[in-house]
TrEMBL record, chains A, B, C, D:
Protein's organism: Spirosoma sordidisoli
Classification via InterPro entries: Ester_Hydrolysis_Enzymes (IPR051532), Lipase_GDSL_AS (IPR008265), SGNH_hydro (IPR013830), SGNH_hydro_sf (IPR036514)
One example GO MF annotation: phosphatidylcholine lysophospholipase activity
Domain SGNH hydrolase-type esterase: 29-207
Gene3D superfamilies reported for this sequence: SGNH hydrolase
Protein name, entry field: G-D-S-L family lipolytic protein
An example Gene Ontology biological process: lipid metabolic process
Amino acid sequence: MTTFFRLSFFGLLVGLLAMTAAKPKRVVFFGDSITQAGIKPGGYIDRLKSMVPADQYELVGAGIGGNKIYDLFLRMDEDVLAKQPDVVVIWVGVNDVWHKATSGTGTDPDKFVRFYEAVVKKFQAANVRVVLCTPAAIGEKNDMTNQQDGDLNQYSQFIRDLAKRQNLPLVDLRKAFQDYNLKNNPENKDRGILTADRVHLNEAGNQFVADQMKTVLLQVK
Amino acid sequence: MTTFFRLSFFGLLVGLLAMTAAKPKRVVFFGDSITQAGIKPGGYIDRLKSMVPADQYELVGAGIGGNKIYDLFLRMDEDVLAKQPDVVVIWVGVNDVWHKATSGTGTDPDKFVRFYEAVVKKFQAANVRVVLCTPAAIGEKNDMTNQQDGDLNQYSQFIRDLAKRQNLPLVDLRKAFQDYNLKNNPENKDRGILTADRVHLNEAGNQFVADQMKTVLLQVK
Amino acid sequence: MTTFFRLSFFGLLVGLLAMTAAKPKRVVFFGDSITQAGIKPGGYIDRLKSMVPADQYELVGAGIGGNKIYDLFLRMDEDVLAKQPDVVVIWVGVNDVWHKATSGTGTDPDKFVRFYEAVVKKFQAANVRVVLCTPAAIGEKNDMTNQQDGDLNQYSQFIRDLAKRQNLPLVDLRKAFQDYNLKNNPENKDRGILTADRVHLNEAGNQFVADQMKTVLLQVK
Amino acid sequence: MTTFFRLSFFGLLVGLLAMTAAKPKRVVFFGDSITQAGIKPGGYIDRLKSMVPADQYELVGAGIGGNKIYDLFLRMDEDVLAKQPDVVVIWVGVNDVWHKATSGTGTDPDKFVRFYEAVVKKFQAANVRVVLCTPAAIGEKNDMTNQQDGDLNQYSQFIRDLAKRQNLPLVDLRKAFQDYNLKNNPENKDRGILTADRVHLNEAGNQFVADQMKTVLLQVK
């Protein structure tokens, strides 16, 4: 190999490394109030920032309180695609179920799936890799007596089925929370284990979600 | 012992037996549309009639479609106490949960307990023995993904707690249905195992409920 | 007339006056959060106290947040009859309608009437005079575009019909609020005229309700 | 004018007429169960067919039971745009309001407007002229005591505002039905005037809607 080629090869290598260093993966967390709170100090996104290589990941929050799947659909252009992300982590579903009871405006099961698929399809068309998450909890009681347990299980299953159907990475927070509560909630309390108020994450919950997210995120190429 | 006394004693015995034969236990089944259908040919009450000694039990239906616990409270004087029952089997709860979604007029958890206690108390004050039942099902899927599973579990637990607190006989239909579906619903269907339409009993369901009821009923003195 | 009789007559008069002075009418205001707030300084009950003769009326609050008609039924013995009132002012209905949307546990129209009648009947059996009120508002827009306007009108009509049927005094707050807003809410705002938050009274609202209540209260013998 | 030009002019005229005759306006009626029933014999679309010139209008139904505004959004490509209509008459809103009470899956007010605007925008981008309609009724009582009157008024107002904002033709069926019932429903019945069941059109209702639709349709160029 001539000096010329050696230098060229070295330069190429440096260039590639430089490019890698210059272009960390942009990951947008797209969701509801749980994600909106996730960017605050101590929030799950904030925690994740110090858990993944800073030069390889740029983590961005895009959560808005009260959002359901069709809210995500309506604002995905402006709030996510405009940021040109490499990866989008979609975490939604609590309000689709909960709002049935609290305002009569939850999301029909079949419409939940259709809008979820539409969101995924549009991200994929823009070459954005998509990570799915199941909704974690509305109440932490571990004996399936939280009011929305059945419905939340149902909508989580829709997301699991979609992930399987399309071979998409999944953070199964619903299952992770239920397993955790079976072991760590001996008094069968409805909050205070991983959530502060049955839905929103407390300190332990933010760390727990960050841990779950990290495992899957590092596997996304 | 003289002949006179012997005959008197014999007469007394015959009289007592006659009275026993003449006064079977009157059992009123007090509930919603499931119980309303229970008196039809093939219904669970109709089936029970041929499963218990006819000279010892008089079975009466008092079910009205759509009833919740406070409907039972409002009509218990007229529809049950007026019939001077010995035993009342209370089977209610499906509509207390279901109507939250279908008309916005379900029953608050704490109010469900308070009215249930008020109904029991009033029966006991009239020397009527009370048998409690848990609501069986709104959907038969066996993996806790029926929309109302969490809430129905919660209200069933209220009834179990009340039965335990007051030492009352309980027909735990919720648990019986769930156990049955785990074994006999391999395709995880939402109806067609013990119900015709997710809620109301099919033929197998009527027989199953009659079996469960019989076991407890025969133990009530 | 002899001195004896004159003195006797005078004594009787003094006695009667003394009794009157010693026994002002005890009026219990029985309702929800609006009435719970009514006893605070500036609340409608607090204002009424300085608007009626203090030696003739003793005004007592018995409001609990979130109460519907059947909550009143469940607690009327303990919270009202135990206080041996002469008059009870029943003001309820907002939650019976509102909770349909906010928790799925509103009150069925026919059950609203039945429990309302049961409450009235029980007060009358205890020789307590009853004053009825219609629920004022969930939203103050004056063009019938508040979400619950239709339902609130319907339940108000039930109360008007009951008042008419039983010839009971009525404070028609629904009508009074609607008339007031037609004149005094030119921008068609949903709050800020007589309410602070679409439902609970602001300063003007508390005075307005006190005025309406006073007129009817002074006519109750 | 020479014979040549006379003949040319005549030919042009014939050609234009021929084109007109060959290409009637294709009008798609896009809505819910009311529109689904509208194509049946005696339905409002069926009636309209004999009320407008057959050579100028081709009327097509695209109604599906239970549809809300976002159902229309999800199926507009396949069910309407694929038919290459000249005009689309959008009539939706009853289920957006009604489903709040009957399944907890009504449409949020702000989301109703956003999806409605999205539907209109997409039709306009495809050069389809759009006609808007307000939802007629859930109950025909004329004193604003139908449960959903307030909410239906609110959503109707959203549609009126949108029509005004974008200068779009509007068939204000809500107003027309209310005016009609004030005059023709002296017993204040909740059905049987223009509807069979509070929502779906009876014979008079289908004719009434056809009349209202015709007036606006003939004005659309």
